[in-house]
Amino acid sequence: MHADHATRAAMTASLIFAMVAAFLAGIGARDQLIVARLSGHFGGSRPVLAVALACAALSAAALAWAGWRVETLISDAAETMLVAFALAAASLELFWRNREAPAREPTRSLAALAIVLLSRQLGDGARFCIFAIAAATASPQMAALGGALGGGAALAMGWMLGYSLERRVPLRKIRVAIGSITLATALVIALTARGIV
Fold it and tell me: Coiled coil located at which positions (predicted)?
């Protein structure tokens, strides 16, 4: 009974942490900017939103599976350091100034949009966080679901705001703040793994 309760609690935590982390790390990310600009250019095209949400779900599933797969192959100590490294990588991506240039002639090709979004997502801060959470909690399904919901919410936010996203939201300040928190978390986990704190 207690084991079942602990398992459910861990799955719930994995879902919530992944959802919140993916949403926050997705604010001002390159995929969100692409979706916002396309939405502004094409007047809130629903197919753009549908493709964006599908890509968010696919990339979340891929990174959650990768985190779980790696976790099964390494020791507990190495797993903890892996989580720290993944969060550190996420923080660096968040600190990196986004220089995604607006397309002069945005394409209407949904296939091209999907390829571009996935290429941006598979190495961004949100997906690194999903990887870390899946590895830490050994609950890839919940990490994938939470990551898909959080990442999808960030993209939906960009789609709804369109051009207003970059004009009204202090994206750079938000990403630096989230990156600082993520880096601090990575340092605490790494120091804990080394027995320093």
Answer: none
d(C-alpha 4, C-alpha 151), whole Å: 29
* Inter-residue contact 121 to 31 (CB < 8 Å): yes
Contact 193, 88 (CB under 8 A): no
CB 197 within 8 A of CB 80: no
**Among 185, 132, 176, 184, residue whose Cα is nearest residue 24:** 176
Tokens of 100: 């995604």
Contact (CB, 8 A) for 126 and 150: yes
Neighbours of 11 (CB within 10 A): 18
CB 27 within 8 A of CB 121: no
Contacts of 156 (CB under 8 A, 6+ apart): 49, 52, 53
| Total residue length of the chain | 197
pLDDT in tens, 101-150: 777 767 778 999 999 999 999 989 999 999 999 998 889 999 999 999 99
How many degrees, rounded to 5, is the angle at CA 73 between CA 147 and CA 196?
80
Residue 16 burial (C-beta neighbours within 10 Å; 0-12, 13-18, 19+): middle
| Residue 187: burial class (beta carbons within 10 Å; 0-12, 13-18, 19+) | middle
Residue ranges per structural domain of the chain: 2-98+105-193
